[in-house]
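Researcher: Next entry in the queue.
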Amino acid sequence: MSESRYALIDCRGGRRIGLGHVVRCTELARRLRARGMAVRFLPAGSVIADAFVRRAGFRKGQPLASRTPGLILIDRPDTDTTRLRRHRERWPDAVIAALDYYDQAALADVTINLNRWREGRTGSGSSRTPREYLSKAIVRPSFRRHRRAARRSARRILLAFGGTDAKNWTAAAMLTLKPLVEQNDMRVDVLLGRPAPRVQRAAHSMGRRVHLHVGVRDPAPLFGACDLGLTGGGTVMVEAACVGLPVVVVPRTSDERAFARDFAEQGTAIVVNPASAFPRKAVAAAVASIAASFARRESMSRAGRSLIDGRGADRVVSLLLAARRRAAGR
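Model: Structure for this entry, 330 residues:
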C-alpha cells in the first residue's frame, strides 16, 4: 500500500464544551503539515470552533473526494465505537488515531489518553505513571518560550476558565478575589474568549485592579507575566503547568476533576472541588495560601515545568507518523 500524505481531522469544540480539543488539533495539524502532509478538518460543530480552525490557517469541510486519507485523527468528547467504526468502514486503509478515547474496543490503531483515571474506569487498568501519560500533553510552542521560575512577590493573578467559560464562573471568581487583591494591592488579569456582561459588571466594581483580555490569540505571554492563577481543570491547567504558573483549579466536570487529580498529586496545583455553585470560600482560602508563600509557589512552579515540558505535540506526531509508516509497509 502506498503512503497517503493526506490527514483528516475530526475534532469538536463549542461554547459548552470549550475549545481545548480544537486548540490541540490545530497544533498537531501544523506539525503534520510541516512534515509534508496535507491536512483538512471536518466541521468542528460550532461557529466559534470553525472560526478557530480557519484562523489557524486550515480548511474545513467534507473530506476530499479525490483523495483517501492516510491518517484520521479523532479528538472529541463524544468519540465512541460507532464513530470509529464508521471511519474504518469508509477508509479501511487509513491509520485511525483517537485522543481521549476510553472504550475497550480496539477500533483505533493509536490511542493517546492523558487522563489515566478515566482509562482505569474501563477496567483495563494501567501501571503507567501520570508523567508517562502527560508527556504527550499538547501545548502551543509559545508556552514553552514563556517558562520561568516563580517570582518572590505575588502581584498578578491570572483568572482563566477557558475561552467559553461554560459554567459562567468568571464573574463569581472575580468577586471572590476582590478582598484579597484590595488588601494586598494586587491585579487580576481575566482571560475571556468573548465579552460577557456579568464579567464586565464585576470588573467595573473592582476598578483599576482588573484587566480584561478578550479574544487573545496567544495567551502565553500573559501566563508568563502572572504570579499565580485560578483556572478550570482542562487545557488552561496544562498550559499553566508548562509555563510554571502555580494555580488553584476548580474542575467544571467529573472528567476535569479526575484529570486535575494528577496535577494535584504531582504538586503543580491545588484543587477545589465544587459541590454545585462556585466554591467561593474555599477558593479564596486556597488562593490566599499560595499568594502568601513564595516557597510554595516556587515548589509548584518547578513541579509544573517538570511535569509538562512543552514537547508533547512532537511526541504525538512521531507516534502518528510511525503508525502510518508501519501501515504503509503492510
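Model: DSSP finds 14 helices and twelve strands in the chain.
Researcher: Noted, moving on.
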